[in-house]
Amino acid sequence: MVIRRSFFILALGCATGLTSPALAQDGLRVALDGTFAPHAMPSLSGGVEGFNVDLAKLIAERLGTTVQIDAAQFSGLIPAMQAGTYDFLVAPVTVTPERAENMIFTEGFMDTNFTFVQKAGTPPGETIEDYRGQSIAVNKGSAYDTYANEHAAEYDLTVTSYGTATDAVEAVLTGRADASLTGSTVAAWAVKKNSRLELGAEIATGQVWGLPFRKDDVANRNKVDAVLECLKTDGSLAKLSEKWLGVTPAEGSTILTPVAGYGVPGLPGYEDTAHEIACPS
Fold first, then answer.
1. How confident is the model at residue 20 (pLDDT cuts 50, 70, 90)?
2. How many Å apart are CA 260 and CA 275, to the nearest integer?
3. CATH class of the domain whose range is 2-111+207-244
4. Which CATH number is 114-203 given?
5. 131-148, pLDDT tens digit by residue?
6. How is the chain split into domains, by residue range?
7. Cα 278 from Cα 231, distance rounded (Å)
8. Which of 37, 155, 198, 260 is the most exposed place for a label (fewest CB within 10 A)?
9. What DSSP assignment string belongs to the chain?
10. Cβ atoms of residues 201 and 116 within 8 Å
11. Who's near 143: CB < 8 A, 6+ residues apart?
């Protein structure tokens, strides 16, 4: 593995029938936020590792090409992709109507829900109602911060914001908060790494994470979308969930369920094109 400035290069190769000349000719160049555990984080052996790093490798393998993964600050990823620096992004990007006006997305590869993290042994929460009157720690400026504050009066929550998601979870361990509200994957990672924590109630948002492309790159978006469908149906994404989150996905969840057409239904860029799922052997 070669490390150069802010990015890390991972080279892979595996011939399959899904190879796209446009994507495979010189290999893929993709990017993600290298500090968003468990999706991407520094590896003890150098470079980055995580759910989305493995996902990028699988996509390259199925396309029969190599991949270079750049790790950089999230705020610069989308402008760099739009400028042509990257073929697409492998960072988990929430698909919203606003973003879909400026980019096209693959179908969702995972639901982006919220989950409470609490001390192990405390009464398990099933809904937000179970946290009525409690102190909740959140990452300042995050979607979880917004959600908790919007519902603070309704559920008598005392919401405290911290600089990072890690600090918010630490507040639970030190007794400064009864629970922390964060993304479901971050919550699962925290619990996997610390036996003093457990998962609480999950809040469904109805949103998904997809992989963004430039608006004029429909053909390649569709090819990667088809790869995601294969990774769902052959259980590869479920294995990544078990590896990095310690969670076996529930039946019917986005990580297991291919979507008809290409993209996210109901949003700009979606193509209602019928096709069979044809995975390489």
1. very low
2. 8
3. alpha beta
4. 3.40.190.10
5. 999 999 999 988 899 999
6. 2-111+207-244, 114-203
7. 11
8. 260
9. -EEETTEEE-------TT--HHHHSS-EEEEE-TTBTTTBEE-TTSSEESHHHHHHHHHHHHHTS-EEEEE--HHHHHHHHHTTS-SEE-S-EE--HHHHTTSEEPPPSEE--EEEEEETTSPPPSSGGGGTT-EEEEETTSHHHHHHHHTHHHHT-EEEEESSHHHHHHHHHTTS-SEEEEEHHHHHHHHHH-TTEEEEEEE--S-EEE-EE-TT-HHHHHHHHHHHHHHHHTTHHHHHHHHHT--PPPTT-TTT---SSBS-TTSTT-B----------
10. yes
11. 114
Q: Which residue has the tokens 């019928």?
A: 274
CA distances from 151 to 103, 123, 179, 182, 269 (A): 31, 21, 15, 15, 33
pLDDT per position as a tens digit, 83-135: 999 999 999 999 999 999 999 999 999 999 999 999 999 998 999 999 999 99
| Closest C-alpha among 166, 7, 165 to residue 77 | 7
Please determine, for residue 81, whether its predicted confidence score (pLDDT) is greater than 90: yes
Condensed to tens digits (0 to 9), the pLDDT of residues 173-222 reads 999 999 999 999 999 999 999 999 999 999 999 999 999 999 999 999 99
pTM, 2 dp: 0.84
